[in-house]
Amino acid sequence: MFNLYGFGGLIFAGTWMTIKLILSILFFGLILGMIGAGAKLSRFRILNIMAGAFTSIVRGIPELILILGIYFGGTVVINNLLASLGYGGSFGINPFAAGVVALGTAYGAYATDVFRVSIQSIPKGQIEAARAVGMPGPLIFRRIILPQIWLVALPALGNLFLVSQKDSALVSVIGLQEIMRASSFAVRYTKKPFTFYLAAAFIYLGLTVVTTVAIQLFEKRAGRGLRRE
Amino acid sequence: MDFLLMLTSIPNLLHGTVLTFELVGSSMLFGIILAVPLALMRVSKRLWLSAPAYGYTFFFRGTPLLVQIFLIYYGLSQFSLIKESFLWPILREPYWCAIIAFTLNTTAYTGEILRGAIQAIPYGQIEAAKSVGMSKVLQLRRIIAPQALVLALPGYSNELILLLKGSALASTITLLDLTGITRKIIAETYRPLELFLMAACIYVVITFVLSQIFGWVEHHFTAYRRPPRQLEVQAGGLGKG
User: In whole angstroms, how far apart are CA B206 and each of B22, B70, B159, B165?
Assistant: First the structure.
């Protein structure tokens, strides 16, 4: 259907890079979201305030600014730190790492509230019962909270993941060889921008479809213990 | 940290913010105008109306905004037919390309929000309207629109914030919006940390103001859902007596 003028391999490699990138963002973002939710529900007011400020500030910053800021700003910070410690030379941040941190932070900020709401949806009596039989905190989290919050949180986490997947295209701006960067490279040589950007669009559509189906399967699995009417 | 640079860059950054507002404002307006027919097509029972609307929504919600901008700004120049047409003076300009891309994108999301709101209206109301002989247009104007628009407000305020954040992508096609100006000053001064911080602050402030405005509008239009205000004077008087 598409004549990719021999750039198919490059774009395939770019797709693989995008997949690695979005899975890393998901991993980093989920952990950050859990920590954020823990801080928001904590007994310590200072943690509540910090988590609240974190989520509302990060949600207001464009993802592009986050990516550029962490990549270029981070490089400056690290070099200044190294210089003050007496190490010379310049050090560059890996664009992959910058992309994961930036978009993972964005994901984490939105996921924080998803986790908070789903943890709050668990009846308090269950936690009390777990305490009464002597379960320690981590065990309560693993056995009582975690299995139940998946069910509530999955649809929203899935939607957030679809958003991150599309935002991952922005990491091309700092030079990561993912789908968009590979397509732009091909455009420069072939002068066929529509062909290659449309091919990129279809790859993203494909990823969206695969992810949507995967989320539905996960939701089915998470809800298997539930009674159906 | 170069605080002096942070302060002196403010006028330039605000200058870029004006362009950001222009891009967001016009895409928002065009987006609303196009989203209404899109949502109506989407809820239609006729397949020839609902299928294209579904396809449109699927494409624009399933692909990154960056791809859409590049397709319009770089992509269309591939066709000599477009390059020779009367549209080229518009499609050549990054300004219009950004507005077209943002409009097409926000239309898809807004249309979906409106569809959800329309479908949330209990079907009995439509049946009742039909049974008293209301025409389709009258049903839409008297029954569906007033309720659906209020139901769509929270979703739409989120969409507008996403549009604002997405407008930063205008800088990738050479426009000097808030992000574009920020990147330009960084290229001149090489002070990325200070300037991205300033830009982030401005975006956060705009987002905050937007969500406050929407919160207020929503509060205003959902007055009917709240219980009437208690008459505290009477209660206080009773307590004293």
Answer: 14, 26, 14, 10
